[in-house]
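Researcher: Batch entry, complex prediction.
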Amino acid sequence: MRNLLVTGGAGFIGSNFVRYLLDKYPDYRVVVYDKLTYAGNLDNLLDIQDDPRYTFVRGDICDVARVEAVVQEYDIDAIVNFAAETHVDRSLMQPGSFIQTDVYGTYVLLEAARKFGLERVHQVSTDEVYGQVLEGASLETDPLITRSPYSASKAAGDLMCLAYFTSFGVPVTITRGSNNIGPYQYPEKAVPLFITNAIDDIPLPLYGDGRQMRDYQYVLDHCEGIDVVLHQGVPGEIYNLGTSVETENIVMARLILDLLGKPHSLIQHVTDRPGHDRRYSLNCDKIAALGWRSRHSFEEALEKTVRWYVDNEWWWRKIKTGEYWEYYRRQYEGR
Ligand code: NAD
Ligand code: DAU
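Model: Structure tokens for the complex:
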């Protein structure tokens, strides 16, 4: 496995993963295949653009001919699929694009893997496929009781991967990760939204009572877990990937304000997200048996993340302009 196609590699986790791979494996070649939607950004890959082991191709994972051409041209051995529509709130506004990319696009990649006999398709999935978990922790074998168009689309993508393994012997693996935080996360997601708003003294819109719980993990820990499964995971298997530490959103918001020396009065409770999943929780014993565990505590991960946004205004100020504020108004006005 030396020639990897990283779909969605210009997004948040994908770009961190590409940097991680090139650092760790000097003999790997990485082709990033990305449509560059609003969430894709070549600035995320700026520091590796001159690396001869890295190539960027702009393309849609739903485009069969283009996917097949890239797999052949670059003699691809394996696909790691990060490409997706990823924001739950946008899935409530515009579910169609989620079904198209997260379900149909996954099918296109699986077909290409089947046709060209690839060694692996790794599907980057999410803890949201289990639905909200009010008590206990989800096992990989638990039923998928999804509640948002985003999580339903991701669950369908996972099921298609398993179907291709069972029906056609395509060697797939799946990881289901919890909430990632770290460098290059588009500032629509709660953590970078709250950090960048706080820097500018703009209110932090906290949904409902703010007592919903998430397991926030540092993005490079997640990348390391994906690497472990890519190289040691068993085809046809699913691996949960999280820290097992849960934090309420209101606690996360207050910590961000404390780290930036800003007042808690910047927190503004707004109308809750429809169908808001109250809690996710992953049992991660299966990946622990492969030797993986997250390296960063929540506090370390958040501190590093806040520092990155403070030090990299060049990156997010370009994003927080016209189109972004249009979305922001649609999403938050009158809530
Ligand atoms: P992101 O929104 O930052 O990036 C998604 C990338 O996919 C972008 O570069 C975008 O241009 C690209 N893309 C979208 N549609 C495409 C298409 N049709 N063809 C090609 N490229 C396309 O997302 P992220 O947060 O980096 O998430 C990456 C993956 O990890 C997703 O599959 C997501 O479901 C999963 N995941 C995310 C988290 C999280 O906390 N962010 C946690 C667990 C799992
Ligand atoms: O759990 C993994 C998932 O984490 C990924 O699969 C998704 O791609 C990713 O977007 C993320 O989903 P969440 O909905 O958990 O993340 P988000 O950052 O949107 O919200 C985190 C929590 O904060 C959630 O409980 C909703 C809340 N929130 C979010 C926003 C955007 C707010 O209170 N206010 C906000 O403005």
